[in-house]
Amino acid sequence: MIAALLNHLWQSTLFCGVVWVVVRLCRSNGAALRHGLWLTASIKFLVPFAALYGLGAWLGLPAPVGSEPLFFDPAVQAAGPMVSPVSISVVTRESAGGFTVALLVVWSIGVFIVGARWLLAWRAADSLARAARSAPGAPPDARVTDADVEPAVTGSFHPVVLLPVALLGRLSATQMNAVLAHEREHIRRYDNLKANVHRLVESLFWFHPAVWWIGRRMIEERERACDEAVLENGHEGPVYAAGILEVCRHCIDRPRVAFSVSALSGNLAERIRHILAGVRPAAVGFAKGHALLLGALACAGIPLITGAADGALRRQAVLDVNSRELAAARFQVETASGVRSRPAVVVNANEVFIRDSTVRDMVALVYDLRSSQVQGEIWWKDSVRYDVRLVTDQPVSNPESLDPSALRGVVTRLLAERFDLEIYVNQSCQEPCGPRALARATVSPQ
Predict the structure, then answer these.
(1) Which end of the chain is more exposed for a tag (fewer CB within 10 A), N or C?
(2) The last residue of a domain, from among 255, 282, 300
(3) C-alpha atoms less than 13 angstroms from C-alpha of 93 in its C-beta half-sphere
(4) pTM for the whole structure
(5) CA 129/CA 145 separation, integer angstroms
(6) Are 277 and 336 contained in the same domain?
């Protein structure tokens, strides 16, 4: 457990460093892009690469009927241990020692403290929003409050703008419109929801300095992104800056609304400088945009593909072992009785049962097909159901994960000896194949 956590932490820290480099390369572009990059670095703490690898291993890679997947070539098999974290790790059963317990206690205390502050702040902001009222002539997403606070946006899923009554008379109409445009931009971008996602990260990883550093960067870029949007929508920079300064004069020494996006968040000096400069951010461009897209796809896709390839290789290895174990199995065939149920494979020690299955069902089961994809002169057998008992000399390996495809060899032999049937896949007759066969079944993988 500790080793897995340490792996996740150094991978997330390295990812944060890569994001920092990318952000530096995007200095001339919009702040919304940089905020999105920092949000990705934050979410990475919640999504271990091992989880993506495990998801890929669980999904695996599809194998066409009667052929090996293209991924199973010598080059990929040689590279497997180099790219597979599971194949180079050793799983051991370790007891929770005193040091581990102490770390867990300290972590739990930190989570409780940070989480409690988060909950109390949320309840305070929610109380303010509930007590606020709509002002005559005010837009529906803006409410006024008698509380002595600075303007803010509260709520994650139904956000509203909170305006203190005492501030309304201090701003001109154009200044108020610019300030409200900034707050509405927070609502449009779901900034409160994004901030709460990062607060969850801060609660769980309160001990990691990079998490708090990411939070500060997100606030800076979030406020600058809204400032850029206000100017982009036609508001004059000097008027907007004057409105922010008037809010500062009103709100000096006043508390901020916790658990909300406040009007004066971020570095005010830097914000005013950028607003007055009026420099428009550069477009991302084709090359940089595609590089960012490919990088994002690689971060999510490489662990998934690696896990899928490794999982498929492991399942193929287990399938090969089971196929060899079951190839020489002895079989007994009996006519099934009772109410018809779906065909099923049951493994019990040295025995494998194929229950309540027609000949067509058996072929479809072991070749992972629908019954309609099995064609040939076996319609006369569709009305009879069978119980097949396969007995091996040694216990079946990994019985809980037995793939029915491992039964192909013995079922093909059973059909040839018991029903005089040949199985053809892609026009190729499956062994045993010879003069005993009186009928033919063709498997259509498409």
Answers:
(1) C
(2) 300
(3) 0
(4) 0.68
(5) 8
(6) no
